[in-house]
Amino acid sequence: MGELSPMVESRLPWEAVIAVYYHMAMRAHMRAWIREHVLITSLVLTVISLALVFGATLDILPAEMLPVAPDWVFDGIPHANAGIAVIALVTMGLGYRSIREKHIQCHRRFMLIALVMFALFLALYLYNVAVTGTHPFPGPDVIYYYVYLPILVIHMVLAIICIPLLYYVVLLAATHPISAIPATNHARVARPALLLWAISFALGLVVYLQLYILY
């Protein structure tokens, strides 16, 4: 745990010093607890995340609680998400190459960017769906039943599977020093998680093309 310099301490009221040390101690305690209970924490976060996802897609969450943006924002969200998915796929590939070449800091930066892209993608998607609903498939029925729907189902199943895996590998990396990460399950779980994550993003782009470009 970091410490405040005597000069900083002398400039702060003693109550503020105690508050700072208290929050630092609580943060260290929380990090230590999560480090010892990564699996449980991942499962809890997964349940919360899936509750938000299904709450938005099934119209359980009240849309009136959300601010309503102009129409051009909702029209642009699918295209913005397609760009975000491309960025995420590129950064995932760069992150994988970095760790293969033992460039750990580059790997961490690329995977953090990919994770932020995923969170942004999900937030925009859920906001769009919660307010405007799902976008109907505009193509012919034969394409809908035999191409679009299977791709959509696989995309959604992989996305759901990825959520606990991503939480697990991220929490392992966030709560352990770099030197200790190889002794954890981080790499063992990250490899299939990365593959499934990339496939899910790629299939999401195929769904986007069918909904907004091809038909």
Can you describe this structure?
- This protein is mainly alpha-helical and 215 residues long.
- It has one domain.
- 80% of the residues lie in helices and 0% in strands.
- The mean pLDDT is 88.
In short:
With 215 residues, this protein is an all-alpha fold. The protein is built from 7 helices and no strands. The chain has helices at residues 6-11, 14-36, 38-57, 71-100, 104-132, 141-175, 186-213.
Please describe the structure with a list of short key phrases separated by commas or semicolons.
215 residues, mainly alpha, 7 helices
Provide a count of the helices: 7
Helix content: over 70%
Number of domain modules: 1
* C-alpha-based Rg, rounded: 21 Å
N→C terminal distance:
57 Å
DSSP strand (E) fraction?
under 5%
Q: For the report, how would you describe the main beta sheet?
A: none
Q: Based on CA inertia axes, which overall geometry fits?
A: globular
Strand and helix map with partners:
Layout: H1 6-11, H2 14-36, H3 38-57, H4 71-100, H5 104-132, H6 141-175, H7 186-213
Helix pairs in contact: 3-5, 3-6, 4-5, 4-7, 6-7
